[in-house]
């Protein structure tokens, strides 16, 4: 986990968001004291499946099992 001061976070928010998009967590410090943690939002399982469908890695089922 990276640690960043609040002042640097304010000045480099775009970089912090890029780290978070890559899955990292960032601990924000105010005068050396931890005050917040910035991290990625967990994806719902449905969103992960839709991403795989969009990439063409899986196909959606018909809802009926094959016999």
From TrEMBL:
Keywords: Plasmid
SUPFAM superfamilies named in the record: YefM-like
InterPro entries membership: YefM-like_sf
Family statement: Belongs to the phD/YefM antitoxin family.
Protein name: Antitoxin of toxin-antitoxin stability system
């Amino acid at each position: 986990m990276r640690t960043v001061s609040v002042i640097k976070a304010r000045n480099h928010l775009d970089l912090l968001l890029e780290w978070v998009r890559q899955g990292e967590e960032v601990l924000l410090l105010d005068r050396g004291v931890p005050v917040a943690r910035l991290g990625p939002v967990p994806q719902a399982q449905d969103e992960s499946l839709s991403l795989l469908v969009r990439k063409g890695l899986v196909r959606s089922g018909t809802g009926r099992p094959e016999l």
